[in-house]
Amino acid sequence: MQSQEDIFNPLIINGVVTxxxxxxxxxxxxLKLDWIVGKSFKMRRSLINRIIPSFACxxxxxxxxxxxxxxxxxxxxxxxxxxxxxxxxxxxxxxxxDMIKFLLSKGASHHLDHRGNCPLYMAVKNRHxxxxxxxxxxxxxxxxxxxxIAMEMIQVIQIKDHRLLLAxxxxxxxxxxQDYNGRTAMHEAVYLGDVFMIRKLLEYGATxxxxxxxxxxxxxxxxxxxxxxxxFEPIFTVHCPTKEAYLLxxxxxxxxx
Length: 257
Fold this sequence. Notes:
2 strands; single chain
């Protein structure tokens, strides 16, 4: 016996998306809306706004533009499912560029949160670089507090996930974001002696100049680590020893790490 989810999965035969009778029957009933006859207007509107978005998310998962187009004729593109997800959240989680473009063209909002996670964050966490770039180009931002972003990037350094670090950078977040102790991803990379991740951080715009609550910068922490100091000198020790100085001279710098 087919599961509920299997019913909605399309069959792909020779590259063509088809559907079995169960799917067509259920989709047809949803689109005809016969099942809400007799209910109050408020109840009808509530059911439509909650159930159809769930079908829309399934259509996104199946990369099914035809079914999605039909569903969007019955509801707003940014209406949420029972758990506050939207079709755009699903597309971003999957990194489906064509689906993201389609939903944005239909007016999907990239500001809505799903359990505190905006669509851009879903793309970042799943390392979908092209999706992150597209959303950022369209004005999307990660709607999490800077301290939370800092903590997540510090974890990225700890697990040495350079692809996730790149996703954060493409999203346009502050690569010098600080946690509750003023520590940055660069502080953590220096502490771990991870030259590779330090190179990546520098490449993505981070600096070793932020002071933590103890007044220490990553440059201070690296004083006895020659290989790391070689990456910081002379830019961050002589030319631009403070973040303020670095921001003033950054346009003039052309350095490869």
